[in-house]
Write a structure and sequence with these properties.
The chain is 45% helix and 13% strand. The chain has 650 residues and is an alpha/beta fold. The two termini are 19 Å apart.
Length: 650
């Protein structure tokens, strides 16, 4: 059960709220349409439900608000806007990354690709998909964790009729297993055909909350769709009889063999055609002017091997709609398998089965399901309870690490960044060595005096700044806004992966610089280990600090550009301030600090370790090191503040 209570957006000053005191519910086992004109506040309402938009009100998902659910991605499947993924990522890579995000096995991605009919596109880039395939990937992402509730924003926008029929059949199958489905649309005829309940809003306010049959009867114009080879003759006959009976009947010729008759019904049109000897191929009561109603999938039968095959009933005289992969618009075809679950016995399958093989959560066929109209609502006693998901959950401390590794290496960004950094660093080191006026450690790091940071540090900061992009940019992870981006486990995984990438990038850059110097000049700047221990520690601290500054800044400001700007702000703004504070004589010298620190230790401390302690403090006392420590502390405080600030409240 989804209950939205008092949803109200908080717009800018002197502007009316886009959503104003909106209250409604979406029941389990039903498909609910949120209907409104463009700009009426449908998308804002969904974002308020998901706590992505500041405002008032509360939304309960099976009795709990979103920020009280431990794993929101397993409770709510979301599709807002375009497909949630980087354009250069493959379909399979995107779904496997999201499997790690919501905590289900990676094999679930292959299962859902089979369910939505995109198994042949697993190696395609997301940016190369058509609109229909884009929607299928988005739905597969929303259904990965077998959620009880689906929230979809204009899921059929821009799709051809065949893809619309497939999509709404999939949503109907999800609802038939006890899930709650809420989708927004601006098409009243689509809402009447595809939903059990229609919630109409205008200017952010509730206008009506009706069963689909009542909505179609009171707010839409019914018609009789006629298909006959003698359309002109039948139109003339119907017009003459209507004038003779003084009835208001409107007849619209849509094509060479189709008529739409408004103000009449199938019985009257059929009797008039029979009396006048007009051959009729089809008679159907419809709503609006968008074609025959798409009949929902009321039941399922279990085929050989436990595979579930859904059968769509077709109204008398109406052509059967083709499913995905059919040869033509009138070719009979079974719809795709159940949208929420894989076939029984398949990896990652979701529903529970009785001993006889039939799914326990599917309603048994009966007279009610056989005679239910296409746009009618199910009786309350017939709604199935939400089933217990059998999808195996993958938890533990490695879950955020798996997600972060799939996110980082799912695109070519780290490899391109490393190639660019190594090339620029090697060329810069050659130029600096040729000039011959810099210390050897600066030459090896390719760090000119006028540059704020060396190329490797800039590359590490860039990778860190991109770390939080997908949690805020792509709506598949948006339902976890209150927990995942600010969860300590995910932050730790991002910091750890970015630190490892930064150190690896620095090692590659230094190795490339040394190799280039030895190749061109016949000798390199490397010396003994003791000579390079302190510069190496300083180099590693600089790289890790830049990467972490980018991670934290992108998390605080929700922007990769802001994260990179924070990395550059350290040497440009913070370093001069720290240098000014550290310059000049001190009234309290720190000589002898290592020996005093050794005296405080409970265990014996070797005397030769004083050199390493002093080296570590010298690294921190350098202007760049102190500036990075200061910047990281500020960003950590800002990150904690944004994580603790008030969320949506009633």
């Amino acid at each position: 059960m989804l209950q939205a209570i008092g949803l109200t957006s908080t717009p800018r000053r002197d502007l009316p709220p886009l959503v104003d005191d909106l209250t409604f519910e979406a029941r389990p086992g039903c498909v609910t349409a949120l209907l409104g004109e463009p700009g009426s506040g449908k998308t804002t309402a969904l974002r308020l439900m998901l706590e992505l938009e500041p405002g008032r009100g509360v939304t309960y998902f099976r009795g709990r608000p979103l920020h009280r659910i431990p794993h929101p991605g397993r409770e709510v499947g979301v599709l807002l806007g375009d497909v949630p993924g980087h354009p250069s990522r493959t379909v399979r890579g995107q779904l496997r990354m999201l499997c790690a995000a919501v905590g289900v096995p990676a094999s679930r991605a292959d299962t859902m690709m089979e369910v939505v009919g995109i198994a042949g596109l697993r190696d395609q880039r997301l940016g190369s998909l058509s609109a229909g395939m884009d929607r299928r990937v988005g739905l597969a992402a929303a259904l990965l964790a077998d959620p009880c509730t689906l929230l979809l924003d204009e899921p059929a926008a821009g799709l051809p009729p065949r893809e619309r029929a497939w999509l709404h059949g999939l949503l109907r199958g999800h609802a038939s297993l006890g899930g709650a489905v809420l989708f927004t649309t601006a098409d009243a005829k689509e809402a009447a055909r595809s939903a059990d309940r229609v919630v109409s809003i205008a200017s952010g306010r509730l206008v009506a909350d009706q069963e689909a049959a009542d909505f179609a009867r009171t707010r839409l114009r019914p018609r009789v769709a006629v298909r006959t080879p003698h359309a002109a003759r039948l139109a003339d006959v119907l017009g003459r009889e209507a004038r003779a009976a003084h009835r208001a009947v409107e007849i619209v010729e849509e094509s060479g063999s189709r008529l739409s008759v408004y103000g009449s019904n199938c019985a009257e049109v059929g009797e008039a055609a029979f009396r006048n000897g007009v051959l009729v191929h089809q008679l159907a009561d419809e709503t609006g002017d968008a074609g025959a109603p798409v009949t929902p999938v009321p039941q399922a039968r279990t085929g050989a091997g436990g595979a579930v095959k859904a059968e769509a009933r077709v109204e008398a005289g109406a052509p059967r709609r083709a499913g995905a992969g059919a040869a033509g618009p009138d070719t009979p075809a079974d719809p795709l398998p159940d949208p929420r679950h894989a076939p029984a016995g398949a990896p990652g399958g979701g529903f529970r089965s009785e001993p006889g093989g039939a799914p326990a959560s599917w309603p048994a066929p009966g007279p009610e399901s056989e005679g239910r109209p296409a746009t009618g609502a199910r009786p309350l006693h017939a709604r199935p309870e939400p089933p217990v998901s059998a999808v195996r959950r993958v938890g533990g401390p490695l879950r955020p690490l798996r997600y972060e590794l799939r996110r980082v290496f799912g695109t070519a960004t780290p490899f391109l960044t490393a190639a660019l950094v190594v090339t620029v660093s090697a060329l810069t080191a050659l130029v600096l060595a040729r000039a011959g006026h810099l210390p050897r450690n600066r030459v090896l790091a390719a760090w000119p005096e006028l540059a704020p940071l060396p190329p490797a540090a800039l590359g590490a900061g860039l990778l860190g700044a991109l770390a939080f992009g997908e949690e805020y940019r792509y709506p598949a992870l948006a339902a976890d806004r209150g927990t995942v981006p600010r969860r300590l486990g995910l932050l730790t995984a991002k910091l750890g992966v970015c630190a490892a990438l930064a150190l690896l990038l620095g090692a590659l850059a230094v190795t490339a610089d040394a190799a280039a110097l030895r190749l061109v000049f016949g000798r390199g700047p490397l010396g003994t280990w003791e000579e390079w221990a302190e510069p190496a520690a300083s180099w590693a601290g600089l790289l890790v600090g830049c990467a972490w500054a980018g991670v934290l800044a992108s998390a605080v400001f929700r922007s990769a550009s802001a994260g990179l700007a924070a990395v550059l702000a350290v040497p440009v703004m913070v370093v001069p301030l720290v240098r000014k504070a550290l310059e000049g004589p001190s009234a309290y010298p720190v000589s002898g600090f290592a020996s005093r620190l050794r005296g405080l230790a409970s265990a014996p401390w070797p005397a030769e370790s004083d050199r390493y302690v002093l080296g570590a403090f010298r690294v921190m006392a350098q202007p760049v090191g102190a500036a990075l420590v200061l910047s990281l502390m500020v960003l950590l405080c800002a990150y904690g503040f944004t994580g603790l600030r008030g969320r949506v409240r009633w």
